[in-house]
Amino acid sequence: MSVRCQLTGREPGFGNRVSHSQRKTRRRWNPNIQQKRYWVPSLNRFVTLTLSAKGIKTVDKLGVEATVARLRAQGVKV
After folding, report:
1. How many other C-beta atoms lie within 10 A of the C-beta of residue 13?
2. Helix-, strand-, coil-residue percentages of the chain, each rounded to 5
3. Are 8 and 54 a contacting pair, CB within 8 Å?
4. Tens-digit pLDDT profile for the chain (78 aa)?
5. For the chain, where are the alpha helices, taking DSSP H only?
6. How many whole angstroms separate alpha carbon 18 and alpha carbon 37?
7. Cα 32 to chain center, whole Å?
8. pTM of the predicted model as reported, rounded to 2 decimal places
9. Which residues form a coiled coil (predicted)?
């Protein structure tokens, strides 16, 4: 599973882990990515989307029909 939201495009952030002695090593902050399954009445089937927590809230707000239409306009295979 890729660590990228299909709707918002959210990806891991990179930076330094800094210890008490100020030694710096690389680390990453992963977004809260989840696979969510939605029923799309116009397609008469379920669609599985890889979304961040914010992406799930966006789907709840806009509706699954509008979200699938937006993803298809971007060229994402749904």
Report:
1. 10
2. 25, 35, 40
3. yes
4. 579 999 999 999 999 999 999 999 999 999 999 999 999 999 999 999 999 999 999 999 999 999 999 999 999 988
5. 53-62, 64-73
6. 39
7. 8
8. 0.85
9. none
